[in-house]
Amino acid sequence: MTSGLGSDARSCTVIVLAAGEGKRMRSRLPKVLHPILGRSMLGHVLSAVERALPHASTLVVVGRGAQQVEGHVAAVAPAASTVLQAEQRGTGHAVRIALQDVPERSGTVVVLNGDIPLLREETLRALVEGHQREGRAATVLTAEVDNPYGLGRVLRDENGQVTGIVEERDATASQRMIREINAGAYVFDAAALRTGLGKLSTDNDQGEEYLTDVFGLLIAEGARAGAHLAATPTETLGANDRAELATLRALMRDRINEAWMRSGVSIVDPATAWIDVAVVLEPDAVIEPNTHLRGHTSIASGAVVGPDTTIIDGVVGAGATVVRAHVVESVIEAGRQVGPFAHLRPEPAAGGVGRESLAGPSSGAGGVADPSLAGPGVRAADASRNDGSGPADVPTEGGPQ
Length: 401
Known about the structure:
- It contains 8 helices and 26 strands.
- It is an alpha/beta fold.
- It has a 7-stranded mixed sheet with strand order 3-2-1-4-8-5-9, sandwiched between helices.
- α2 (41-52) packs across α5 (121-134) and α6 (190-197) crosses α7.
């Protein structure tokens, strides 16, 4: 895809905020590492950055669960660097620490919350392009929502110009009636951002340094600030608890399934088909109800998968049929039939090392079935076979976008 970004945008600095504890998740896992269809929330954000701003330098601010998040970043975005916010003193404090790690950095700085996994690359690219085209000191991504409770509100004057951002806890009764919310994505001029961060106070309900206060400080000094309205409010949603996480997961499922159906795949019941972002489906594949396709699975043209089937890192050949089966790291060759009530998985060698053989169909749960029962046309999968290519609207790992 050809990008309209100028050289400054292509070489910009991106700061992803991933230091929060996420108390309402009630989990030992840091909030940003909770998975959504084959990728963590943070992984989805980093993937959008990589596609929208491929030449950007990315810093991920970590805090609670720092070692876990650092390890995850190294695995999914090895070009990114991490910066430790040892004491969580607010989003402004987090950004200031990140910029201290790159004191020579100038130009455009993009700041993103690490828990907005539905953010589209097109939206992120348009946000940066609009900021640079208008020559602003600061730009915020916004959305119009029906229920803005708990979210920061965007303040405008009688001419529609942005005058600031106020957090829910600090908003007046009239300000809480505003439906345009801060979506957790920002673009700044680096010099202006450093100036604003140096003037932040903790005089607010939470006693923290709010990044959003930079807008009011810059505007008060005569700098230009503005907003970019997201095309759809759903892509700006975050998750603070497991219920909200489930909502995001369902929205991502719908986005992925719609993209595959528009690419020629038949999904009989989209509400019960759960397809990870790295899965590859060919046109005329058929996905029956209650099917889960996970990891780097690929399904060839004419294959029928389901109902009641899970495939993890498996390959299904053209015209094959897989019914009521659990398939792990196995290749089902063209035209073959598997199931019902089959379990295919690699059989561990003695001592946990050595050769890998393949389990065949099993009528019961547990244990590795006799490989001879699988018959010809079923073998172990090569985990490296799939590059994660997918249709244009699916946030995949390297496919056409």
